[in-house]
Amino acid sequence: MKSNPDSLEIEFNNCEFKNIPIDFNLSQTLFSGQPPHFIWNTFEKENGVSVFYRKFNSKYWFLYQEDSKTYTNQEFYFNSLDLFRFNDDYSKIRKSLRKDDTLSLAIDKFPNLRLTKSDFWESTVCYICSANNNIGRIKKIVGSLFDDQGQITINPLLSTSFLKSKGLGYRAEYLSDTALKWSNGQFDINKVKTLNHQQAKNELIKLKGIGPKVADCISLYGLGNTDSFPIDIWVQRAMTQFYGLTNHKQIQ
């Protein structure tokens, strides 16, 4: 989905903004490989401040940080609280994690990084597209799937030829099959949303092309199941380096 710079600036200047009462690093969080990394884009205000934006329900949703405060357009205030998991008690979480020396060092290095909670469908699309892919290509592919209203609608995704034209390659078959099962009720979205992590993961891996790691990512970022622990090659290497764990079962 391409955005007109002029319409972006006009809409931004006409917005009423509200402070989000969360102490965190916006750029670090949105560009950390979580679903927003593949969905949100940026432009600069006249004063050089980076503004993050996406289209959502036909309107632009903006986020920016200035003078150590985070702002969003007023109509997306509660969406922003949900996106950044406002109800998580980070003081309590950090205190618990600091019992581990390695995690304590990680907190010191990235003290204001937050976990995000994104739309279930958008998260599913992002992580099916992520298989054996890099962040730049994932972002390009995912961005091309959004329509002018800022949605990834299911009908176009039923066509593998459409998806291949967007660069999905062999993943086109996986996303098309998921879109079909999502739309015809074979995959019971509402039921899965009520399940615990392991139960949700078991349902997700029934979908073509979704393995344990992708299912863990979708469960964590799309369903908010914080007991999920996605393991990719980098996590596996870190767990071996810092904890001496050498196989997937030990790490899990």
Task: Describe this entry's structure for a reader.
With 252 residues, the protein is α+β, with helices and mostly antiparallel strands. It folds into two domains: 5-89, TATA-Binding Protein (2-Layer Sandwich); 120-223, Hypothetical protein, domain 2 (Endonuclease III, domain 1), CATH 1.10.340.30. Helix content is 51%, strand content 11%. It contains 16 helices and five strands. It has helices at 5-13, 26-30, 35-39, 77-83, 90-97, 101-109, 120-129, 135-145, 154-157, 160-165, 171-184, 189-193, 197-204, 212-223, 233-243, 248-251, and strands spanning 17-20, 41-44, 50-56, 59-66, 69-73. Strands 1-5-4-3-2 form a five-stranded antiparallel beta sheet, sandwiched between helices. The two termini are 37 Å apart.
In short:
With 252 residues, the chain is an alpha+beta fold. The protein is built from 16 helices and 5 strands.
Note the topology:
Layout: H1 5-13, E1 17-20, H2 26-30, H3 35-39, E2 41-44, E3 50-56, E4 59-66, E5 69-73, H4 77-83, H5 90-97, H6 101-109, H7 120-129, H8 135-145, H9 154-157, H10 160-165, H11 171-184, H12 189-193, H13 197-204, H14 212-223, H15 233-243, H16 248-251
Antiparallel strand pairs: 1-5, 2-3, 3-4, 4-5
Helix pairs in contact: 7-14, 13-14
What would you report as the Rg, rounded to the nearest angstrom?
Answer: 19 Å
Report the major sheet. Answer: 5 strands, antiparallel
**How many beta-strand runs?**
5
Strand content: 5-15%
Low-confidence stretches: none
How far the N terminus sits from the C terminus, by CA atoms, comes to 37 Å
Mean pLDDT: 93
The side-by-side strand order for the widest beta sheet comes to: 1-5-4-3-2
Fill in the CATH topology of the largest domain: Endonuclease III, domain 1
- Helix- and strand-based class? alpha+beta
Superfamily (CATH H level) name of the largest domain: Hypothetical protein, domain 2
Helix content: 40-55%
Order of helices and strands: HEHHEEEEHHHHHHHHHHHHH
- Tell me, what is the CATH class of the largest domain? Mainly Alpha
Summed up, the domain count is 2
What general form does the structure show? globular
Query: What is the level-2 CATH architecture name of the largest domain?
Result: Orthogonal Bundle
